[in-house]
Amino acid sequence: MDRFLTIGEVADLKAVSVDTIRRWEKEG
Q1: Would you report the helix, strand and coil content of the chain in percent, each value rounded to 5?
Q2: Half-sphere exposure of 16 (CA within 13 A, CB side)
Q3: For residue 12, how many other CB atoms are within 10 A of its CB?
Q4: Is the pTM of this model over 0.85?
Q5: Which residues are in the HTH merR-type domain (predicted)?
Q6: Which residues contact 5 (CB under 8 A, 6 or more apart)?
Q7: Per-domain residue ranges for the chain?
Q8: What pLDDT shows up at residue 2?
Q9: 1-28: pLDDT as tens digits
């Protein structure tokens, strides 16, 4: 069941994804 992330982990991943996309938009 290691593949199932905790709510905190999912939130962190989403936050990182959003930050990365925003950085790409600024650089782009």
Answers
A1: 75, 0, 25
A2: 6
A3: 12
A4: no
A5: 1-28
A6: 13
A7: 1-28
A8: 65
A9: 567 878 888 888 888 899 999 999 999 8
Instruction: Return the structure tokens found at 3.
Output: 């593949």
Distance of CA 25 to the CA centre of its chain: 15
Token pair for 1: 């069941």
Q: Specify the residue for token string 């990182």.
A: 16
Amino acid in the structure at residue 1: M
* Stated length of the chain: 28
5 and 13 Cβ atoms separated by less than 8 Å: yes
Q: Which residues contact 13 (CB under 8 A, 6 or more apart)?
A: 5
